[in-house]
Write a structure and sequence with these properties.
This protein is mostly helical. 61% of the residues lie in helices and 0% in strands.
Length: 141
Amino acid sequence: EVLTAVAADSRGFPAAVALEEAMSMIRPSAKIMRVCTAVCRLFEIAPVDDGGDDPMSGFWQPSKNTFTADLEVCLAKLEGFKPELAEDVVGNAVAALARIEEYVVHPDFKPEEVGKSSLFFQTVCAWVLVQVDVLRELSGM
């Protein structure tokens, strides 16, 4: 499972350290921001107006506030994403896919690309892609 990989990174780098390092970034790369934006959009977390030119930059502070630098809190929140439990499973899946489509189709939205900027977000990117597969299956797409 992807979340198990977050807890025990295959390169032997402690996941808690990778998360703490990632969350301490002041201005993350576009690759990381694309992942953060997709996660926030999946969880329907609104951006903040940070005065930045890039609309994705408004998702950094909400990501940090929601997922924190605590690995257990972060994992619990990701594990709590259960689109199959929605009242309208198909409608919810279609809506969730629509919210993240523009981010996940980007050529840099690949774990190996994101991993060049952050080991932690490399795994989160893989988690998002698994959720895309689940949502497509639920929506019948």
